[in-house]
Write a structure and sequence with these properties.
The structure holds 2 protein chains of 2 kinds.
Chain A (H helix, E strand, L loop, with lengths): L2 E10 L2 E11 L4 E5 L6 H8 L7 E6 L2 E2 L4 H7 E4 L11 H11 L4 H14 L15 H13 L5 E5 L7 H15 L3 E6 L2 H7 L2 E6 L2 E6 L1 H7 L4 E8 L4 H9 L4 E9 L3 E8 L6 H10 L4 E7 L3 H9 L1
Chain B lengths: L2 H17 L1 H23 L6 H7 L1 H15 L1 H9 L1 H6 L5 H20 L1 H12 L4 H26 L5 H17 L9 H10 L1 H8 L6 H23 L4
Helix pairs in contact in B: 1-7, 2-4, 2-7, 3-9, 4-9, 4-10, 7-9, 7-13, 9-10, 9-12, 9-13, 12-13
The chains are: A alpha/beta, B mainly alpha.
Chain lengths: ~300, ~240
């Protein structure tokens, strides 16, 4: 087990930030920590990285307790905090050298590690420039390079893609996925597609409690969502008789007339979970002697599950 | 205690002092003012004395009361504000190593600032006889006092992320320890000796006579240890 959290509770004064959570991660896992703002994601990460102590419960990293073996745990961990910790008057190269030295990277390896991180994170073009003058995307990459410089077993990333543009987000996600093959990555986010794109396990946390834990697919299957078909037909038919005919289909629970766009009608058809209604719908449309313009199916997404669980 | 970590932090801090204007301002202003004061006493009073220069010169001490907080105000405040304190405290570095690295770099900067005074000593040496020991002990006294003030400055800056607040509060505390010596007459005689002992002024004038009194060393070293201890407690207070 690379990280083992048991009955972790954290109070800030009287405020309960993390409420008795337990989970374990193993090597090769990219764990997405999902939750609304203030759910306790950052607090849990701060405890894993030894910055804050738990009020009760224990956290072990690579079998070592974060309180008893604090310094040893820190050697195994790479951490990118929510507020990217950069020195604006240093260049990325200087900054990475400094962090590597603090991380205890042997002197003779520092240059090699730094150059490797600069290459992996795509910082070659800015490595001599003051960090303060870099764009947000480059700053974030410097932060990631910092977290990985000691080649840690466990990588803790607090909102790693915040503030990046879509291209950079994809680059960073690919980087994380690559790392996740040999290491344990825990990343927090409130961007749902991010979890679907990068993580092979999701923990949804709300008000300090774990409300769901599983692979993105498992969570999707668990939800009580329905399959929804959005149908657009030409308006040369009787919308009531079409909607009546659609309602008769087995597995259809509800047909909703959305709007009349002027030359077409739009319907939402709600069916049972997992049912593929497209074929039978198109037959019914034909029977009404009208033209099918478009049809889209939507499975309930992680987004729906998230809203369901964290309301 | 890992001296390698202290060295890493020490060198980084020292470098960032010289990357910002503050180190140059402090050194140049000190050089100008102390040079002016030296030549004034030299030509006007016709004494080539360094004892006056260090021991009882009010202005020199006042300069340090302002300069040292100006140097130390950013040491932890800036790290707190930028979020880099979280970086440092989650690296395999002990809190004490971090504090010592920062403390020693500020002390080094002050020592560099004081080096021109050696030049004054050499000048006087060419002109007339001068007592060697009072000069050395005065310099030592000044360094010890700076060590104490730096301790205060580093501690105060660990309390706030606002550099201006860190500066003002440190100046006030340094001023208290310095000016208390000038206000001793307001205390009843029975406790004067206690207040006298806690002022820096008293110890500085003591040591500048050329004799190293153990009371002076005990005073400064215990004050320095105490401020470093307080800084450590302040860093740990995040865990409360």
């Amino acid at each position: 087990m690379s990280i083992k959290v048991s009955n972790l509770t954290k109070y800030y004064g009287n405020f309960l930030a993390v409420d008795d959570i337990s989970f374990e991660t193993k090597k090769g896992e990219i764990l997405g920590f999902l939750g609304p703002n203030g759910a306790g994601k950052t607090t849990t990460m701060k405890i894993i990285t030894t910055y804050l102590p738990p009020t009760s419960g224990t956290v072990q990293v690579e079998g070592m307790d974060v309180e008893e073996k604090s310094l040893e745990v820190r050697r195994k961990i790479g951490y990118l905090p929510e507020i990217n910790p950069l020195y604006f008057d240093m260049s990325p190269a200087e900054y990475l050298d400094y962090v590597a030295a603090l991380d205890g990277v042997p002197k003779e390896n520092i240059k090699k590690r730094r150059d490797e991180m600069i290459r992996v994170c795509g910082l070659e073009s800015v490595k001599g420039q003051d960090i303060g003058t870099l764009s947000k995307g480059f700053k974030q990459r410097v932060g990631l390079a910092q977290a990985m410089i000691n080649n840690p077993e466990v990588l803790i990333l607090d909102e790693p893609t915040s503030g990046l543009d879509p291209n950079q987000i994809i680059e960073i996600r690919n980087l994380i996925k690559k790392l996740g093959r040999e290491k344990t990555v825990v990343l927090s986010t409130h961007i749902l597609p991010e979890v679907q794109a990068t993580c092979n396990r999701v923990i949804i946390i709300n008000k300090g409690k774990i409300v769901a834990d599983g692979t993105p697919e498992e969570l999707q299957a668990k939800s009580k969502g329905e399959s929804i078909v959005t149908l657009e037909v030409k308006n040369n038919c009787d919308k009531n008789s079409l909607s009546g005919s659609l309602k008769e289909i087995r597995n259809v629970n509800k047909v909703e007339f959305v709007k009349d766009t002027g030359d077409s009608f739009i319907f939402n058809i709600y069916g049972d979970k997992g049912a593929d209604l497209r074929e039978v719908i198109s037959t019914r449309v034909m029977q009404q002697k009208t033209t099918l313009l478009s049809m889209q199916t939507k499975q309930s997404s992680l987004e729906d599950i998230f809203r369901e669980l964290t309301r | 205690m890992n001296t390698q970590n202290i060295k890493t932090i020490y060198l980084k801090e020292l470098k960032s002092y010289f990357n910002s204007p503050i180190a140059y301002i402090v050194m140049i202003v000190f050089m100008i003012i102390s040079g002016f004061l030296f030549t004034m006493s030299f030509f006007q009073i016709n004494i080539a004395s360094l004892r006056d220069f260090f021991g009882s010169f009010f202005i020199q001490m006042m300069l340090f009361v302002v300069f040292i907080p100006a140097i130390t105000m950013r040491s932890f405040s800036e790290e707190k504000k930028q979020g880099t304190l979280e970086l440092l405290l989650t690296k395999p570095v002990d809190d004490l190593e971090l504090i010592l690295g920062k403390y020693l770099s500020a002390l080094t900067l002050i020592c560099i600032t004081l080096t021109p005074t050696i030049l004054y000593f050499v000048i006087i040496l060419f002109i007339g006889p001068i007592a060697f020991w009072p000069f050395v002990t005065s310099l030592l006294g000044f360094i010890l006092m700076s060590g104490f003030f730096i301790g205060i400055g580093v501690f105060v800056s660990s309390l706030t992320e606002n550099q201006i607040i860190a500066f003002i509060v440190s100046v006030l505390i340094c001023l208290f320890f310095f000016l208390l010596g000038k206000l001793l007459m307001i205390f009843p005689p029975s406790i004067v000796s206690f207040f006298e002992y806690i002022t820096t002024d008293y110890h500085l004038s003591n040591i500048s006579r050329g004799v190293i009194d153990s009371r002076v060393l005990i005073y400064y070293f215990s004050m320095i240890f105490f401020t470093i201890f307080l800084t450590k407690v302040s860093l740990e207070s995040r865990k409360w």
